[in-house]
Amino acid sequence: MNVSLNEKIPNNVDVGGDKALQRALERWQPEFLDWWSDMGPDGSKGYEVYLRTAVSVEKGGWAHFDFVRMPEYRWGIFLEPARAGRSVGFGEHRGEPAWQEVPGEYRGNLRRIIVTQGDTEPASVEQQRHLGMTCPSLYDLRNLFQVNVEEGRHLWAMVYLLHRYFGRDGREEAQALLERRSGDRDNPRILEAFNEPTPDWMSLFMFTFFTDRDGKFQLCALAESGFDPLARTARFMLTEEAHHMFVGVTGVARILERTCQVMAKERTDSPERLRALGVIDLPTVQRYLNFHFSVTLDLFGSELSSNAATYYTTGLKGRYEEEKLDDDHRLKDAVYPVLAFEEGRLVTREAPALNALNEKLRDDYIKDTASGIARWNRVMEKHGIEFRLAVPHKGFHRRIGALAGAHISPDGRLLSREAWQARADEWLPSAADRAFVQSLMGRVVEPGRFANWIAPPERGIHGMPLDFEYVRFD
Ligand code: BYC
Ligand code: FE
Ligand code: FE
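^ thats the input. predicted complex w/ fe (iii) ion below
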């Protein structure tokens, strides 16, 4: 694998061998940096951060640790090595050689998938841009920046595909990716969850646990693509995604740990009392969980989607772990159970599996959240506290798809609009919850110190101690 690290844009795809492509990317680069300076982590300029940078795709090459002066992170373009003789694994082209160029008739759909994926990456950076100001420790600040620079690299990954394979309209889309803004009324990000604010660190940890996990599942589906450059890009992005979800699962676990310590010591489960002691009560954690889970479920799209069927049939987007599934990988006659809301009732219907692929991916995703939830519940168990966290019913608080019109409680009961509204503050973070969590957010930047509402992690980054100076300020 030929890696050019010393070029303006580090890459293993021989950008230098294609002068037109190189010029286009080198024109996009300063615009990306302008965007980063406007919309990237607030006030981070000049900080030296102990970061992991991808320098190659070989074993360990994606995990090179060193101090980087922001924003001099070297955003590179890395695709996993091609697998010789790879063929399309599903759909009507199953068994044909994977495509190295975009098939003309699928160009529009492929571009749309890449743009949608690409749009989420800068969106998340925009959502998180103020959090550095209220970091609970240097360790956490470093993790935030790590996630942010990698989401920036994921944007680069999609922009490379647009520039390299889609000509003029690809370049226009790459431009537009820097112009949309999370939450902007006139020019918002494409998918709804990416227009929600991430105003505090509890939201960040829930977001990286739940929403970055949607990233994992969508990227796994794209890693199956018959369009080989997309598959190889997605596979490399997945190596970085694991850390984002780690930040989420450990972040929430540390919040729970701290709360449980105080609950055990003070022998109380009173939210008022715990809040007065400066920790986040467990019902509030559950409400944040309910919010992020339900908003993320919407990201999978409608239960029945002709887009999803087309993407699959034409070989553009597969299923999670397609190769491990034991069926014909064409799904022409297969069926899949889908939850529907009909005449005021929740019913399960057999639907054509091809149309139900969004729902199948959502179900796979829901299963994957279970081990994290179990890990969180072990914290309470360890402290002898009875409270348990759980994901809400699939239909709770949905805005996309067949369940959007239904008013479903977290435990899956169908309610009237009024009955649901009356209890919304029990189930979703209320304005008062958000204000309380916000009130805890203060900036802790002394090495080895942690804010009162969160326990220290079990270990530092890359073998470094907890009191390591993960971020050096000017
Ligand atoms: N919000 O047929 P349907 C990540 C639209 S996260 C707004 O069900 P489809 C990351 C839809 O576009 C992973 N609009 O949709 C995480 C369609 O519009 P048209 C991101 C929505 O196409 C954290 C219409 O509704 N990657 O990487 O089957 C940090 C009909 O819907 C939404 C991808 O998503 C929504 N939630 O499925 C950083 C992969 N849902 O045709 C990064 C690429 C649907 O009426 N995207 N609509 O104009 C896709 O595969 C598909 O676009 C979706 C939607 C699965 C998202
Ligand atoms: Fe990403
Ligand atoms: Fe991510």
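The chain has twelve helices and seven strands.
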